[in-house]
Design goal:
36% helix; Translation, Eukaryotic Peptide Chain Release Factor Subunit 1, Chain A; alpha+beta; Nucleotidyltransferase, domain 5; 5-stranded mixed sheet; 3 domains; 4-stranded mixed sheet; 10 helices; 60s Ribosomal Protein L30, Chain: A
Length: 381
């Protein structure tokens, strides 16, 4: 296979140094009745990429670069598993594909660096969260943000259901023997009824679920975790959980009785105040640091600071594209047209450099940005 489906960001592909760098984004659809046009739109975007490449590359190079895209187009199974968005990053050496839990605007760019702003926004922790749906016999994990919501696919080899986890280790009623009266007759009697057995097995199962989710998902991603379960299980799981990312407030309903849209709506009611609080605190910090000349929204100044590894946090406007490129050696800004394969989105180029230097990049909608330029940076010194 010429492409790899990945879930992690930043991915090592952004460190590739051999261009050209091809980025494709498009909205996709989960249901067959809606996704029939997805492949047509994908092929149209690939044709746009081909036209852009023609300006600087011979035909044989172009066809080699587009081979992974052709393979994706011909893979029917791939299109039958569509989510809400698709992102493809490719150069001469690699091609990685993201299935996104939110719709993205259609973009096809050939430039001196990958276009990653939509991926930053999709993966930034301020918006992402997990929902753990739980009952006595099964559990499911969902990942969402303010735009999308998708169920996490567990590895086939992992034990998930209560039956798989406990197997033949279910709690058995304890039987004791004793004599009755003075007859010497042996009498068998039970200690603990069916209800007690069920409660013990439920506790053992819940402890397994807590450990499984914490070790395999919460600790690696550090995402907030919202519990969705019946009220009778809510306190029990919360009391035994050791997961530091589990929110105290959750969804006290049977997750199986909620549609995906309803579960997302319930979860966002819990997450949104935290998200808005983090954004507000970041903007307030930016304004404070700017008063001390340790922050700026001047793109040229930010570009130089990024080149010198002095940007601690960069806020970038998600829907804004400024055609241009940055000289990675000097920080000088070069202008041009977005159709030129040597020119990309200037805001994206600066964001990419900040990430490579281990700075933090937060992509915000226009109404939450503290500036009009498309960028706002807090400097390290």
């Amino acid at each position: 296979m010429l492409y790899e489906i990945v879930n992690d960001f930043p991915h090592e592909i952004i460190n590739e140094e051999v261009g050209p760098f091809i980025s494709l984004y498009q909205e996709t659809h989960r249901h067959k009745t809606e996704n029939r046009q997805d492949l047509i739109r994908f092929k149209n975007l690939v044709n746009d990429i081909r036209d852009s490449l023609k300006e600087n590359y011979p035909k044989e190079d172009i066809e080699a670069l587009l081979q992974p895209f052709n393979e994706i187009a011909e893979d029917r199974t791939f299109w039958n598993k569509s989510t809400d968005g698709l992102a493809v990053l490719a150069n001469r050496n690699k091609c990685v594909v993201y299935r996104l839990a939110r719709a993205v605007e259609e973009v096809s760019i050939v430039a001196n660096s990958f276009y990653i702003k939509p991926l930053i926004r999709n993966f930034q922790s301020a918006e992402r969260y997990h929902v753990l749906g739980l009952d006595r016999t099964n559990f499911a994990l969902f990942e969402g943000n303010r735009y999308g919501f998708v169920e996490v696919e567990f590895p086939e080899e992992d034990d998930i259901t209560k039956e798989e986890v406990l197997g033949d280790q279910h709690t058995e009623p304890h039987i004791s023997a004793g004599s009755f009266g003075g007859s010497g007759a042996t009498v068998f009697y039970g200690q603990g009824g069916r209800k007690e057995e069920v409660e013990k097995d439920t506790e053992r199962y819940f402890r397994y679920v807590d450990k499984y989710i914490m070790e395999k998902y919460s600790n690696p991603t550090k995402l907030p975790l919202i519990l969705a379960t019946l009220d009778e299980h809510y306190g029990e799981f919360g009391n035994l959980s050791n997961n530091p990312y589990l929110y105290k407030n959750g969804i006290r309903k049977d997750y199986k009785n909620l549609t995906s849209a309803q579960l997302k709506e319930e979860a966002w009611k819990i997450i949104e105040p935290h998200y808005l609080g983090k954004t507000k605190a970041l903007v307030e910090r930016y304004n404070l640091e700017r008063s001390k000349f340790l922050a700026s929204d001047d793109i040229a100044e930010i570009a130089r600071a990024a080149q010198e590894n002095r940007v601690e946090i960069l806020m970038a406007e998600g829907g804004k594209i400024i055609p241009g490129e940055m000289d990675k050696e000097t920080g000088e800004i070069l202008s041009g047209e977005i159709q030129d394969p040597r020119i990309g989105d200037l805001l994206n180029s600066i964001s990419m450099l900040v990430i490579k230097h281990k700075g933090e990049v937060v992509v915000l909608p226009e109404e939450r940005m503290p500036s009009q330029t498309g960028l706002a940076a807090i400097f390290r010194y």
